[in-house]
Amino acid sequence: MAEEPTVRAVQKALEGAKKRNFVETVELAINLKDIDLTIPKNRIQEDIVLPAGRGKEVKVCVIGGGELALKAKDVADLVIASEEIGSIAGDKKQAKRIANDIDYFIAEAPLMAVIGKNLGTILGPRGKMPKPIAPGADPEAMIVQLRKSVTVRTRDKKTFHAPVGTVDMSAEDIAENIDVVLGRVESHLEKGKFNIASAYVKTSMGPAEKVM
Hints:
Elements: H1 4-16, E1 25-32, E2 45-49, E3 60-63, H2 66-72, E4 78-80, H3 85-90, H4 92-101, E5 104-108, H5 112-123, E6 131-133, H6 140-146, E7 149-153, E8 159-166, H7 171-188, E9 196-203, E10 209-210
Parallel strand pairs: 3-4, 3-5, 5-6
Antiparallel strand pairs: 1-8, 1-9, 2-7, 9-10
Helix pairs in contact: 1-7
């Protein structure tokens, strides 16, 4: 159940947003304080499962062969065979297009080193290095979970954003997602919520409303 102040902030953000001819994303902006993000151990990168989902399509790619590729065929948005890694890496334009189009990558664990060597420079900076899976495992449960996930990632800036839904979701569902994200972020911070200066919710192009 979402916190009442969060629901009110989301309602105001949704009411204040102009109608667009596309479905706007709802974003959470978090501003940190009293934390040095130039120190890598203070940074956050976590995939958080949103209880109400993203409200939009999330694309997942599986990299692997044999049994894994067979099982992924009907559930993943894209399957890349192990022997295709080199040719994709050799075509920078294609590699960047795939990296930008796909939200999450899953790869057979033994291929992680090969992927790092060939595609690390493209996937790494985007925070999209694959999540390892055992060869021949069924990736469906992992894919289902990733389709409801959002990646929260801080670099060296104290302000960062995370999508928490879309304007066609209910304020309660979006608020529930926000409360989960804030809770997970607080759990990574040395002083918990006291390291959060403020948090705002807004649609992509709408005004921001203060959550905390």
